[in-house]
Amino acid sequence: DRLSHLALSRFEYSEARRLLERLAELWGELGDREEEKTALFRLGELYKSLDEYDQAQTYFEKVLLMAEEDEDTYMQGAVFGKLGALCNFRGDYVKAKSLRKKALEISLKIGDKRGEVIDYRVLSDVLLNLGEFKEAQDCCLKALTLSKEIGDSEEEGLAYSELGDIQRKLKDFELAEHYYKSAREVYEQIGDLENEEKENSRLGVLYRFLCKYDLALKSHERSLIITKQMGNKRGEAKQCSNLGAVYQDLGNYLMAKECCEQALAISIEENHIRGQAIDYGNLGTIYQHFGDYKTAYELHRKALEIKTQIDFKEGKPADYLNLGHCCKHLGERS
Q1: Whole-angstrom Cα distance, residue 165 to residue 202?
Q2: pTM of the full predicted structure?
Q3: Would you state the pLDDT for residue 80?
């Protein structure tokens, strides 16, 4: 058990998966269903973090079945929440809302205050995706208030961050920046490097949108330093990609190309398929700026091929448009 936690802290995903699978197997042999459910639940969380949603769903549904057999209400609520998160990532927001509400009902019923905080916060994200902005904000403010009441600093930071996302959608960018900075301040105070890195990244994306490129570069560079410090290779790839996007906006395509190539190399090394799809698309766009439409076409085709294989819809319309643009310049029919 300790070894699996250590492997995860080092971002050694393959080793963590092996250890957790063995742990679940051992607890099953010993007949300890509580520990077996916990190990299987952690496997679901691991696969979710790796964007392997089908595998994650398989484990969560197995845990849910066991929890229902054991009349384990607490675990049922936790699994409903995780299944709702999977639906949210897949774009099935209506089902995500229903599952998250089930999780919240259970947290309220059994008096699980921290679960209640998490459920309100994540429900707000689902509502945000559904365009229900007022309801999203109300849920997130409840999460923020409750997190302060129970002294949960991590959840307080996450609630501030979610409020930042809501304000960004509402186009109140000054308030969004305030919430993101509030979240980052909380993480700095408690030494939460992982979430501090994510908050710097959110600020970088916001600054890039506002064309505040110096601030965007500084924010993503801060994130990059932290990912390297933690040994988080996937996070490192993401920040290289984000820096590439900023340099591209600045018209520094050589620097953008260098950053995106670094991101792709890491994504391939880490076997991060979703990351590869994004990186191939980004590089394709850069080669279009170079006027190398043949290479750009192959890169966009590769990005689209991967996204189709893994049912990753984000950015697909842009990939099709870029392919058409390349075909036009190459004198071919799309």
Answers
A1: 9
A2: 0.86
A3: 97
